[in-house]
Amino acid sequence: MKAALFYGSNQPLRLEEVDKPTPKKNEVLVKVAACGLCHTDLHYLDHGVSTFKKPPVILGHEVSGIVEAAGEEVKNLKPGDKVIVPPVFTCGQCEMCRTGRENVCNQMLMLGNHMDGAYAEYVVAPAKDTIPFIEGIPLEEGCIIADAVSTPFHALVNRADLKPGNSVAVFGCGGLGINAVQIAKALGAYVIGVDIKEKKLEQARQFGADEAFISDADLPKKIRKLTGGGVHIAIEAIGNPVTMQTAFSTIRTGGTLIVMGYSDKDITVNAGRIMFREMKIVGTLGCPPYLYPSLLKLVSMGKIKVKELVTHKFPLDNINDGFSLLRQGEESLIRAIVTC
């Protein structure tokens, strides 16, 4: 099969012919329809972040496709089924898995990191973690549900405990943030989008933001005035410590800051304010498997959009062109996918 292999940072992916994987007794072989191009992969490609599997390794962790073959013990899936493959596989046995928090499984394995991913014509996955599609969802564009849509869904539903009528400020209206905007709106929130680019704010409005602001020094004051004391939930979708601190300054008494963007840097917040005003700072990672059916139903009902999010498509042969566009920060780009 054809695959795009990662050999190390600061070099393009190499298109090569490799052996098609064979599913084990509890796995499925999936013919990849599409795989999202994610900023996580840029950490490997450009920033020296190592994959757990020693290169060469196939990247790609946001997958949709069709089951081609199933292992002998697989009962829930069959050849021809349309599926989503989540980015993280779980053990099903540790404390986190047994308490419904599989997304932070103690033995999690990430596709395109611990094992070969889906920038390829085929990928294997555990059948227990593979999610059947619901009719009405486009197969190719639906790949982004696996990560870019499911991650903010879990963040808002589980970690933020969003309620209808809550006010939500989304900091960073890119690939993750734009989904936080539309999901918060679909769940009944009053939504404020924040970014440094007007084009991103325009997109936030298109996906449901009630207000949209360029980030500046007066932003916290504007948001507190607009919402009568601050938002119930601020969600940081960039991974910038300064933005996290700004987001924290916009939440009200009893409010919650959701840290969805990744950074290895420290942030500084006032401990007394957290204590005296009963505020929360909450991390969030991925999405537990049990939430996917509810999310897919919302997508199939048209409450959450996916087709409109995919602004660029690249064939596997041109995957490096796709990553070049991602690096450039093209303003018209919301999500890009590779089709196989």
From TrEMBL:
Boundaries of every Enoyl reductase (ER) domain copy: 8-334
Source taxon at top rank: Bacteria
Alphabetic keyword roster: Metal-binding, Oxidoreductase, Zinc
Molecular function (Gene Ontology), one example: oxidoreductase activity
Cofactor names: Zn(2+)
Pfam families, sorted: ADH_N, ADH_zinc_N
Family note: Belongs to the zinc-containing alcohol dehydrogenase family.
Name recorded for this polypeptide: Enoyl reductase (ER) domain-containing protein
Source organism of the structure: Candidatus Fischerbacteria bacterium RBG_13_37_8
Lineage: Bacteria, Candidatus Fischeribacteriota
